[in-house]
């Protein structure tokens, strides 16, 4: 399988890009090659596709279901009860809708934590994108539930080997307030034994911090460090309420951080300490969180929100530049998961976008990256390619109508209301 993109804007000049198999083979003007598929890149720019590093993908089923609430009552009174009714088929349908939305807005990778792991994995396989997928692990201090959860971790890990290499199996202990100390230690040990990444919510709210101090006498990052949980295998989502000492710990342990600005603002979780984390060379990627707390999966929109939030938070317009924001959404995310992508270069995995330079929000093109970060949205993406396969061309994704119809059917069953 091969793809030739002709006359596309790349690094300020017009060139051709040849993809063979799943990698960029050649980049240069007037390439004399034969390809199975030829795309006209005229009036388009080629850029790396986007990495959404913290999601609960099938929460597309809950988009708009419960809004304008604080986190803990939102979760316990609304989200968790409805999630308890969801079947694997529902999760599969919701995850397919998430994949569709991500493909249409330029994202070809997401890091997920949710129920019914295999439903999400099936959706990723069929839709052609990449996913680092973890099952949500909760035990609430119940030993039997913890043992059942670890049995499921081992079972899913074994079954994950049946899927393509576009799927990375990760571990998803939900948070310190839903997973016991013993279970956190056990799942960390399993991660170390098997070379797996750990995906966890950390210091998202003031309540989480206060409860941790009351229970353990330490703040969340200090507590996780004390029990030996932190390390370069940990992806910490949110990381809002951390002090200077905790940021020092995160840097020393080489923890990776995922910032979810839209969700954090909507839930009033607090101010993300970008300057403190970046100043310690802690890698910061971006995520949308789930569609019930964002309420979309548009990573171009997320970049702008992250940048504006950082600037106003520190009263510094030079903070978190458009180039840094774009890196957070591309190469930084790819590096966190060990994926050889995130840039348009010969030999790299062929994950890329063609941006419509005639889209009104892309005109004039003084600075492509600034336009993408501060002006663009998912509608500026004309073509999405992942692993060398064209998933969307001229904004059309195969099977859209079926995906939407099946989601509406599931939501009607779950809520009793027509979706």
Topology:
Blueprint lengths: L1 E9 L2 E8 L2 E6 L8 E4 L3 E5 L1 E6 L15 H13 L4 H17 L2 E8 L2 H11 L2 E8 L5 H18 L6 E3 L2 E2 L7 H14 L3 E5 L3 H11 L3 H7 L7 E5 L5 H9 L3 E4 L1 H6 L7 H5 L5 E3 L12 H16 L7 H7 L2 H6 L15 E5 L11 H8 L5 E6 L2 E4 L7 H16 L4
Parallel strand pairs: 1-4, 6-7, 7-8, 8-9, 8-10, 11-12, 12-13, 13-14
Antiparallel strand pairs: 1-2, 2-3, 5-15, 15-16, 16-17
Report on this model:
The chain is of the alpha/beta class and 419 residues long. It folds into two domains: 2-48 and 346-400, Urease, subunit C, domain 1 (Roll), CATH 2.30.40.10; 50-336, Metal-dependent hydrolases (TIM Barrel), CATH 3.20.20. It has helices at residues 71-83, 88-104, 117-127, 143-160, 181-194, 206-216, 220-226, 244-252, 261-266, 274-278, 299-314, 322-328, 331-336, 368-375, 400-415; strands at residues 2-10, 13-20, 23-28, 37-40, 44-48, 50-55, 107-114, 130-137, 167-169, 172-173, 198-202, 234-238, 256-259, 284-286, 352-356, 381-386, 389-392. Strand 12 (234-238), helix 8 (244-252) and strand 13 form a beta-alpha-beta unit. Helix 11 crosses helix 12 (322-328) and helix 11 packs across helix 14 (368-375). The chain is globular. The two termini are 39 Å apart.
